[in-house]
Specification:
The structure is a single chain. The radius of gyration is 22 Å and the shape is elongated. About 65% of the residues lie in helices and about 0% in strands. It has 2 domains: about 40 residues, no CATH class; about 40 residues, no CATH class.
């Protein structure tokens, strides 16, 4: 099955043309992308995301402080189960 692509980005086109086997190069990029999407989010990643979110300076009202304290309690519990 033959497909064609209309690549208008000159930098991308030049880079693709430099590849010895363009088909295999494209296949490897697609497989890499598929593997990245299948990445499992583990507990440490979730903790890091939540900690980064809680560290934002624009979250300062009373409700946010109470929620932040509650979330920190949960994070401490999660960290202690490593």
């Amino acid at each position: 099955m033959r497909k064609t692509f209309d690549i208008k980005d000159e930098d991308v086109l030049k880079h693709l043309e430099m590849q010895v086997n363009q088909t295999q190069y494209i296949i490897s990029l697609i497989k890499k992308d598929m593997n990245n999407k299948a990445q499992v989010i583990d507990k440490e990643m979730i903790i890091a995301i939540i900690e980064e979110y809680l560290s934002r300076k624009d979250r300062v009202n009373k409700v946010d402080v109470e929620v932040k304290n509650s979330i920190n309690s949960v994070l401490n519990m999660l960290k202690s189960t490593k």
